[in-house]
Amino acid sequence: MQKRVLAIAQNPVFSTAVVCIILYLVAGFTSAHFFSTRVAVNLLQDNAYLGIVAVGVTFVILTGGIDLSVGAIIGWTTIALASMITTHHVHPYLAMAIILAVTTINGAILGSLIHFFAIPPFLMTLAGLFLYRGWALLISTSTISIDHPAFNPLSDTLLKLHTGSGNVPLRLGIFVLLAAFAIAAILTRFTAYGRSLFAIGGSENSALLMGLPVARNKTLVYAISGCFAGIAGIVATTRSAAGDALSANGLELDAIAVAVVGGTLLTGGVGGILGTLIGLLIFGIIQTVVNFHSLDAAWTRIAIGTLLLSFILLQKLLRLSRTSRQSP
Amino acid sequence: MSTQQITPTPEKAPPQAPSLAAPKHRRQLPIYSWAILALLLVLAYDALFSPAMFSIRFEHGRLYGSLIDVLHRGTPVMLLSLGMTAVIATGGIDLSVGSIMAISAGLSALLLTANDVATGAPITPHSAALAILAGLAAGLLAGMWNGFLVSFLGIQPIIATLILMIAGRGIAQLITDSKIPNFHNATFEFLSNGSFLALPFTISLAILMTALAVLLTRATALGLFIESIGNNAAASEIVGINTKLVRFMAYAFTGLCAGLAGLLAASDIRAGDVFKTGVNIELDTIVAVAIGGTSLVGGRFSIAGSIIGAITMQLLKTTIISSSIPPECNLVIEAAVVIIICLLQSPRTRTTLKRIFSKTQ
Fold it and tell me: What ipTM score was computed for the predicted complex, to two decimals?
């Protein structure tokens, strides 16, 4: 019994969840009107596209890789979607399908280059970042707004949540976000594919010797990350109803931070989607507190940096205590 | 100009680890051959399509021209690539250089500004020497922080420096109260706008720092230690190299270089722009180091290569701006360069190419 409790306490997701709850309570007791359904919903809703991207990035990090191209994919998606709908009069749904096909196939190409030529993922996806930003700027350097009868409903409130203190509007983003988390959680936890990712992240050579399709699964991981980034881009476009080639600059690092705060190790093999969801909540709480107290936005960055550091140190301590118990 | 002065130095370098295994009778090409080839290719393009690039004129006691400007504009990336080369050679990476630049630029500009940032009331600005020292000290301190996290706490370099990359820009914004302090100070402005020996002063600075880096790594055993750690950190520890200290020094030096680059950025625009200074510059720097032939997984480095890489990148940018290619293509071309360099550096490509060539013979 004691052993089981210890095992749960040493799970990185557990410590993340505890920190999340403490942060939420501290934030609630220090800021007026923090404990409300509206604030709770907006924790997820305001960061919906960051969360969707972070899900895709978690897949990549689980295999021990990294994807720096996701922020640029969002920028490209918003401008490509807007230009296709507004300038070239493509039907919005067809345009979205094209976008997702492009980002997924590009991800697969990047992934296969990374795997077959043994190129550091960091560099290859950096090239992807340059490519998407450059492509986006080639499409248009100015913002393009979208006004199309089939697209406009997606930008509006889809549902209203009735609570005691009034209605909370729910937009497309939060539904897509929850669906993305659910699909990704099932994929990583309950399928052979998901378990193989942990094996590859733990030791690629062992995974290969076990007969796992390492090449296919590693390539797929980058395709998944590209696909999720494309979806996030579409969500971002519906929020602003416009395309901007320079939007989501630097988002890739926020996404990595969310995954790491959620207990996923950058060395691969440890972590999960649930942790990423909690990481996103922590990110949202910090942002909301900074907004509530109308602090300088600089504090958000410093708080996230500090949090990242403390989580990594915490994970190191947990691993140290575990190895010291196992060794004798 | 500066390439001629820099390239000969590493020729005297002790044989590097990979070349030890090579057959003695065949002289190996220096690892920055690709960088020189790339530089020559861009220069050849310029010679064919925009010969105006090569015109250099002498005015007001200073040389002017596109090529001089390339060296001047390329100085920040050159400075950063010096430290980044050492860090990458130990098997690490430093993502925080852009944020360190912002801290240094913001701090030095704040010390020089004549008005209080918060209230706007006039105050006495500090001396340029103090601002320069403060910027360099901030950079060094930030670099030491990175080094501490990586070597003494054992945090992965990419994540350790990501912390300062995210938090650093926030710190810079706090220092200047999220404003952009402007200043007028002749001494400080000399850093980026002054000229020395008929050349922009920045070029002298770049040569000085490069000489310092080459001396430190190739005239002492430090360079071999760095390569040894990059090849096999555990083995280096066993043979008695103080791996922690060497790693720490590499990050601290990178911080110092970033501090200096931040001073140049502030001096260039006479303001400390904490929002835009050094954004994405870490990527340019890593690409410059990669072009220069430094192995990105560590264990092999060339400072001359990184400098040539930085000049090539800047020349490419200037060429694109001055030719009829739309400037938006810049990033796409950079991406193509990165992909080609990666593929060329990949051992798999080399073995495949070797197989093809041996078949044809």
Answer: 0.75
